[in-house]
Design goal:
By secondary structure, the protein is an alpha/beta fold. It has one domain: TIM Barrel (Alpha-Beta Barrel), CATH 3.20.20. It is built from seven helices and nine strands. Strands 5-4-3-2-1-8-9 form a seven-stranded mixed sheet, sandwiched between helices. The two termini are 31 Å apart. The chain binds zinc ion (ZN) (2 copies). One zinc ion is lined by residues 66, 73, 106-107, 113.
Length: 214
């Protein structure tokens, strides 16, 4: 099952111009089996897209969220409530993992808003990062080729899993980075379990490399 794990729509991300209906139609055209809507600090947009998607049996829409923590952006899966107020990453991890969800740091090497973006120059290994996260966003469609290579190196070095998502804010970016799951999660709870299992592979598509030619 191929899922774009990181998508913003105009419903609740003012930085995105993606219309929810077009988003679903394009995802189907691209051959994606699922998309996860991860608006900033709210599930609102995801709820709207899920309702629309009820008319499209070809695709599964999951509700996730991208939360602003003090240390950087975090993707949250399998946790139904909104998280605001820019808490510390450790607090978010506690809250989400004790409720069965999982927190995955978004675009850890992208500046700004990557991990410890407020402290440029601090190597990630010297922060709380390795303790907090057992899965990272290995490939992000808005990271450079170098930053995504760093994600792969980190996963290999730490022997942890990594997911992939486009972080699309424009329709042409949808699906440039994806996660190919061995399982077929049907809802947010199953998606979180699947992410924890490590039974998947993050992928960057040819379109990603066309967009990021150096
Ligand atoms: Zn972000
Ligand atoms: Zn994002």
């Amino acid at each position: 099952m191929i899922v774009d794990m990181h998508v913003h729509t105009l419903v609740s991300s003012p930085c995105s111009v993606i219309d929810p209906v077009e988003c679903i139609e394009r995802a189907i055209e691209l051959g994606l089996d699922g998309i996860c809507i991860t608006e900033h600090d709210t599930h609102e947009g995801a709820g709207v897209v899920k309702e629309i998607a009820a008319g499209f049996p070809e695709i599964v829409v999951f509700a996730g969220m991208e939360v602003m923590s003090r240390e950087g952006h975090l993707l949250v899966y399998g946790y139904g409530k909104d998280i605001g107020g820019v808490p510390q990453a450790a607090e978010i991890v506690d809250m989400v993992s004790s409720n069965g969800g999982i927190v995955v740091p978004a675009h850890p090497w992208r500046q700004p808003f990557g991990w410890y973006s407020g402290v440029p120059g601090t190597p990630i290994e010297d922060t709380a990062f390795p303790k907090l996260f057992s899965v990272i966003e290995k490939y992000n469609g808005l990271q450079t080729i170098r930053q995504n290579a760093r994600g792969k190196e980190y996963c290999d070095m730490m022997e942890i899993s990594g997911i992939g998502g486009s972080d699309a804010h424009r329709l042409d970016c949808l699906g440039v980075a994806v996660t190919e799951f061995e399982d077929n999660p049907a809802d947010e709870r199953e998606l979180a379990e699947t992410i924890k299992s490590g039974r998947y592979e993050a992928k960057l598509t040819d379109r990603y490399f066309e967009m990021h030619e150096e």
